[in-house]
Here is the input.
Amino acid sequence: MFNRFYKPKNNGYLCSCCGKRHPDLPRSYGCDAPYLWFQAKPEEREARFRLDSDLCVMDGEHFFIRGNVEITIVDDTQPFIWDVWVSLSKASFDKSVSTWTKKGRENELEPMFGWLSTALPCYSESTLSLKTMVHTREVGVRPFIEIEPTEHPLAVEQQNGISLKRVQEIAEIIKHSKN
Here is the structure.
C-alpha cells in the first residue's frame, strides 16, 4: 500500500527485524489513493471514483486532495514526509481545482480545513480523520498538510520532529508489514 519516494544517499541501516543491511533509509512514503478507495471493492472503483495522482472524487460527493505531512528529522538535514490524502469540502476542493495551474495560487488561497484520509502505519492510534489544515503551495508542489496540534503521536512528531532512529523504525515497520 505504501510506496517509497525519496531515497537519499546514505549508508543504509542494519534492520532490527530481519538482521539484514538495507542499502537506503527512505525519508518519504506515500499512498496512491485515499483510505476509502482501498475499502471499496476493486470492481466498484472505476464507477465510484475519479482518481488521478493528486485529486480524487468519490461518488460525486466526497472530495480529496493529496499533500505532504512534513516532519523535521532533528539529526538530519532533510525532512521526513508522509504523502497523504485529505478530504475537503466541495467548496474548498472547487477552489483548489480552479487555481490548480494558476501561478501565485499559494498567495491567493487561504489554508483549508480537511480530515486526514490516509491510515498511516507506525502509530498506536489511528490517523484517520485527524483534523488538518491544507496549505496550498506553488504550482507543481503538493500542499503542505498541517496536523491539528493534539496529543496524537503524529501531531506530536510534526510539532517536535523525529530522530533518524524513528525514521529507521518506520522503515522497518513498512518493509516488514504484510500490507
About this structure: The mean pLDDT is 91. The chain has one domain: 28-161. The longest strand covers residues 62-71.
